[in-house]
Design goal:
It contains 3 helices and 26 strands. By secondary structure, it is mainly β. The protein folds into 2 domains: 110 residues, Lipocalin; 180 residues, Exo-inulinase, domain 1 (Jelly Rolls, Sandwich).
Length: 337
C-alpha cells in the first residue's frame, strides 16, 4: 500500500515542481505600459539608463543597470560612451548603488573609498554628486542607432515591416498591438548568398533575471551562425553576450543599449565554401554593425554555433531564436550582394 501511495505522489510532486519553476521565472516586461502598472518596478526603470557628464574638464558616461528592488549595478566609463569615446581595454570603474529612503542613490564604487550620495532629479533625468569638492551632473541620454528605421533599399527582400511578416516566414507570431515580431521565428531558405541583413530588435526589461536568463535570443544567420541577443547592458561584451558569436568571437565593444530601446544589427554575410568532395575550403565571413558601430570586421567563423544546423553547402534561411524570452523584432530586410 505504501508503494502505491508513493507512486501516486510522484506525478503530483513532479507537476508541483513544474508549476513552481514556472511561477519562479523572473518577471519579463515587454512594454513601458506593463512597467508603469508596478510603482516599484517603474521607479527603477525610470532611473536605469545611460548618463553623460562633461563637468570640470572631464568626460564620463555611466551605465546604471537595474537589478530589482532599488538595487543597481554601476559602470563608469571615463572618456565617453562605449563606441563613442570609450573602447574595449580602456579604464572602467565598477560598483553598486541602492536607493535610500530619501530617494537618493548611495553608490559604492570599487576605486573610491567612501560611498557617494547621488541626488536624482527625475523630472529632468539628471543625476548629480559631489566628489573631491567638485559637483558633477549626469544627464540621462537615450542613444539611437544611425540605421534605426532604415528603409529597405531598391531590390531588397523585405521580410518583416509594418507589423506584417512576408510569405518567406514559415513560422512567425506577431504582436499585433505593437506591430512587432516575437522571437522564435523562422524563414524558408533564401535564394542566394552572400547578402546584407538589416534587423531591429528590442530587449525585454527583466531586472530580477541574471546572466543568460536576461532577455535571451539570437539571430541565426543561414540557420548556422548565431549573433547573440541578450540584455548585456553594462556587461563586458563576451562571446556569449549581446553581439557575440558563442565560443568564437567577442564584440570589439559592448554596444548593447538598455532594454526597451530599439537596437540594430547590420550583418554582411558571405557563406563558407565547400569543394566537390564536400570538405570546407573557406570559412564563412561575417561583418556586424551593432547600433551603427562595427563590432566584428570580416571575422572568419570556423564552425557553426551549437543549437541549430550544421555547416554545409546548401543555403538556409533566418532563425530568430526564442530561448524562452519575448524579444521583439521589426524592420527586417536583406539585400543580395
Amino acid at each position: 500500500m505504501k508503494n502505491m501511495i508513493l507512486l501516486c505522489l510522484v506525478p503530483i510532486l513532479f507537476s508541483w515542481n513544474i508549476i513552481s519553476a514556472q511561477n519562479s521565472k523572473p518577471a519579463e516586461y515587454t512594454s513601458v505600459a506593463e512597467i508603469s502598472r508596478d510603482e516599484v518596478v517603474n521607479r527603477d526603470f525610470l532611473i536605469q539608463g545611460e548618463y553623460f557628464s562633461e563637468d570640470n574638464g572631464t568626460v564620463f558616461s555611466v551605465n546604471l543597470v537595474a537589478e530589482g528592488n532599488g538595487q543597481f549595478r554601476v559602470v563608469v566609463f571615463p572618456g565617453g560612451f562605449p563606441g563613442d569615446g570609450w573602447n574595449r581595454g580602456d579604464e572602467r570603474i565598477l560598483g553598486k548603488a541602492v536607493l535610500n529612503d530619501s530617494g537618493d542613490l548611495i553608490a559604492t564604487l570599487n576605486e573610491i573609498p567612501d560611498p557617494l550620495t547621488v541626488k536624482i532629479d527625475k523630472t529632468k533625468a539628471i543625476l548629480s554628486t559631489v566628489f573631491e569638492d567638485q559637483t558633477y551632473s549626469f544627464n540621462r541620454i537615450q542613444r539611437q542607432s544611425p540605421t534605426q528605421g532604415q528603409s529597405a533599399p531598391e531590390g531588397a527582400v523585405v521580410l518583416f515591416a509594418d507589423g506584417k511578416a512576408s510569405e518567406l516566414f514559415e513560422r512567425a507570431a506577431v504582436n499585433k498591438e505593437a506591430k512587432t515580431l516575437w522571437a522564435e521565428a523562422r524563414t524558408k531558405p533564401f535564394e542566394k548568398r552572400p547578402y546584407l541583413l538589416h534587423i531591429e530588435f528590442m530587449l525585454s526589461y527583466m531586472p530580477f533575471a541574471k546572466g543568460q536568463g536576461r532577455s535571451n535570443s539570437g539571430v541565426y544567420i543561414d540557420e548556422r551562425y548565431e549573433c547573440q541577443i541578450l540584455d548585456s547592458f553594462g556587461l563586458d561584451g563576451k562571446n556569449n553576450e549581446c553581439g557575440g558569436f558563442y565560443q568564437q568571437a567577442e564584440p570589439k565593444v559592448n554596444m548593447c543599449f538598455p532594454p526597451l530601446q530599439w537596437q540594430t544589427y547590420d550583418i554582411d554575410y558571405t557563406p563558407a565554401v565547400f569543394g566537390a568532395d564536400g570538405k570546407k575550403t573557406v570559412n564563412a565571413i561575417i561583418t556586424v554593425k551593432h547600433n551603427g558601430i562595427v563590432i566584428h570586421d570580416a571575422v572568419k567563423l570556423a564552425k557553426e554555433t551549437p543549437g541549430c544546423k550544421k555547416e554545409g553547402v546548401e543555403a538556409n534561411g533566418l532563425y530568430l531564436q526564442g530561448h524562452g524570452n519575448k524579444v521583439q523584432f521589426r524592420n527586417i530586410w536583406l539585400k543580395y550582394q
